[in-house]
């Protein structure tokens, strides 16, 4: 068996650092959303309803993380498309320019 090239095959996946940054952003957004949701609900209750504040905090964390996850996925897809388009342009570039 003969190997055709020593380099890895091209992939459409975004770079590792971009994926790690996306996961970190999602986790941070979830934490911030949860803390804000809990704090707002805790301030609204007069008799210390921590159960409701906790549930609202979990809901807010889910919504915040979900929103940032949608933006992160769209951003990573756009990055992949951009890199693929640039690679195609480099291959099909006219020799005179």
List the helices and strands and how they pair.
Elements: H1 16-44, H2 50-91
Helix pairs in contact: 1-2
Order of SSEs, N→C? HH
Q: pLDDT average, as an integer?
A: 85
Biggest β-sheet, characterized? none
Q: What's the helix count? A: 2
**Low-confidence runs:** none
Care to count the β-strands?
A: 0
Give the terminus-to-terminus CA distance: 40 Å
Beta-strand portion reads under 5%
Descriptive notes:
This protein has 97 residues and is mainly alpha-helical. The chain is built from two helices and no strands. It has one domain (16-87). It starts with 15 loop residues before the first helix and ends in a 6-residue tail after the last helix. The mean pLDDT is 85.
Features:
97 residues; mainly alpha; 73% helix; 0% strand
What's the gist of this structure?
The chain is mostly helical and 97 residues long.
